[in-house]
Write the structure tokens for this entry.
Amino acid sequence: MRKINLFLIASALLLGSCNNNKSSENTGSTGSTEAPVAGGQENVKDDVSNPDVVKVAVGSKDHSTLVAALKQAELVTSLANAGPFTVFAPTNAAFDKLPAGTVDGLMKDDKKADLQNILQYHVTTSALDVSFLTDGMTLGMVNGDNLTISVKDGKVMLNGSATIVASVRASNGWVHVIDGVLLPPAKK
Amino acid sequence: MKLSKLNLLTLTLVVGLISTIGCKPKGSSSAAGGDAAKAYVAPGKYDEFYNFVSGGFSGQMSVYGLPSGRLFRVIPVFSVDPEKGWGYSEESKPMLNTSHGFVPWDDLHHISLSETNGEHDGRWAFGNANNTPRIARIDMKTFRTAEIIEIPNSAGNHSSPFITENSEYVVAGTRFSVPMGDKVDVPINTYKENFKGTVSFISVDKASGGMKVAFQIETPGVNYDLARAGKGKSHGWFFFSCYNSERANTLLEVNASQKDKDFILCVNWKKAEEYVKAGKGTKKAVKYAHNVWNESTHSATSTIENEVTVINAKDFPDIVYYMPCPKSPHGCDTDPTGEYIVGSGKLAAVIPVFSFTKIQQAIANKTYDGDYEGIPVLKYDAVLHGEVQKPGLGPLHTEFDANGNAYTSFFVSSEIVKWNVKDLKVLDRVPTYYSIGHLCVPGGPTRKPHGKYVIAYNKITKDRYLPTGPELTQSAQLYDISGEKMKLILDFPTIGEPHYAEAIPASLVMPNSQKIYKLEENKSPFATLGEGKARVERKGNEVHVYMTAIRSHFNPDNIEGVRLGDVVYFHVTNLEQDWDVPHGFAIKGASNAELLIMPGETQTLKWTPEKIGVYPMYCTDFCSALHQEMQGYIRVSPAGSNVPLTFSTGTNLPKPTSTPAADTMKK
């Protein structure tokens, strides 16, 4: 009787351990580099630190279109990173200036690459105080294209098409609010 | 038939074991077989306990997770740590000041975590300095050494920093007796006449944790080894093991093992406290350092104190009693109820367990066995609850679980023995392989042990770890004690040489962990609270650089006008307000160390350039994608040079004279 019990225990162990194996495969700990399902820097509970650039955008009711687009483009994790980033953040009104249907079109799954390209054109990997932006300066943006700064009468313009209207310091960089959407130069 | 069944069973077990190992995630398999999974903490999961482990001769305290055995942090305490700038930054240097001046190293043996009502409260961890007697208090919010107090009239603070159940006191019993007072230049062989022992009570402020040497009890010149406070019914008492009751001053290996029994010193500290309050103590002139870290100025101060209150045990017959304990007692541990005191004679063949109730009766009835240097000695049989017979060889230390069991480490027979405190029966024993010293059950020294595990801290690891030359790593071993039998589930290496350790549920510590220092609360006189306030000032031959650091630049990052003969102070303020984003600061040729500056903090590095030239400086703590760009230059000109003192970031001022217009910032 005692032997049978042992046998059962041994079998249970065997099953149990293989169940473990399955779950560990799911979390990628058997050698793949997948991130675990939960966690990630964007999910860390931290009410003490200053908000990062994503949280700044999320906290602004004028940027709900941008936030939705960042989520659709899967850029939230990257922008919650140590950075540093400068994000040129078009307002909802700026997105509304685009031809009707543009934003809806970009939010479709088959246009994700286009959306990523546009959003990454709004981010540079450097924390730039507005005073660092000087007339004629060129910034290399995350998508690989360049952006040109012009300064006239104290106003900072990007590509001559959008103006910085406000700046917010985030924990991992700067959010400069702009009144137009920046379009990457056409591919040659 | 029977035989084949057995074979089948064996086969099944073997297959099961192999499968278990085979199915296990990488890194969790070991010789511990199927139990290793219990130590596995999956990615994205936290450990259940923090384990605060003494670093022994490293002088530091380390923090591990349990059950994973992962090392999280080494907290610099008594030894300098160039990695963290501890003892190198101008702000931290006073923390290592003593009456002997700046002491860059010590030997940290024991940990005590603060308690309220006999339970862990997650506020402070205390550690002892064995060599130059001190006690340190580590803030469990910041994981930083917040205070260090030197112990006067002590030599070898081994019997320390054990704590009372409401953190009223941490104690310090001197391991070496020494001559004290005015007459200290005496022949060593006058030990018996001139050498004295002390046990010191250091009060801990309830709110701030601030320590103060409240009083010392002067005793005959024995060696105090370990100690534990009473708890529950024995709260108000303290028990110190001591050896060398022979009072030998040479070849103690032989000469301190002459008697069958040494002592446990029982101290009625509540009574002693009353005498001190009534002004009965004697004020003695001494010199000791008291060093305090200030969280708002981000800097330490060191004050030399000049006086201590001493009570001579001989003059107050109702505060101290010696209790005989076989053969050079080492560990002296009180069980969770406070009724039982376990003495572990290193050379004894039994473990004596004393009864607090019987101690009280013996004192009331004066059931004495004479006196030792004027101090009453309690009769062994009158205070004994009983002896654990043939427990093992070389008992050292005992911890407890919540179910009335004790776990004693045995150095010579390399094992942990589990026994029942009441009936003194041995229940289980497991080998530790590596000559165990201390051991730890989470909450083991408190009134409410958390149980679950016992961790062995071991000295010798030749049979298992890859050799690393003449010295191998020290190690810890984790055993599951949730069942009747103890089961080894993990080996993990430790820093320094681990002595005592305590473990505390993560839930008591983790929610309080500090994330940043708020810039608006930064009261450092050298803080630069904004890039606009960055500047360089000359005061005679001192150049003070008020510098900011934020991803990913220093301000200023170009400095000129420093001359040979100048002493440069870099006061670097980390402007980040973001958790886990420290910046580092280092400069070529610095003869001290780097700085690591936490978010919102200000730290200072002193630098004396020895040669002219342009010196690079950079951020040493990987902070961002542009960490490598976080750098700058400082120009050093000859003494008497007329290069003006200038500083800038991003503007290239002053205008270069030999090249065309300055570059604008290009990306």
User: Anything to note?
Assistant: The two ends of chain A are 80 Å apart (CA to CA).
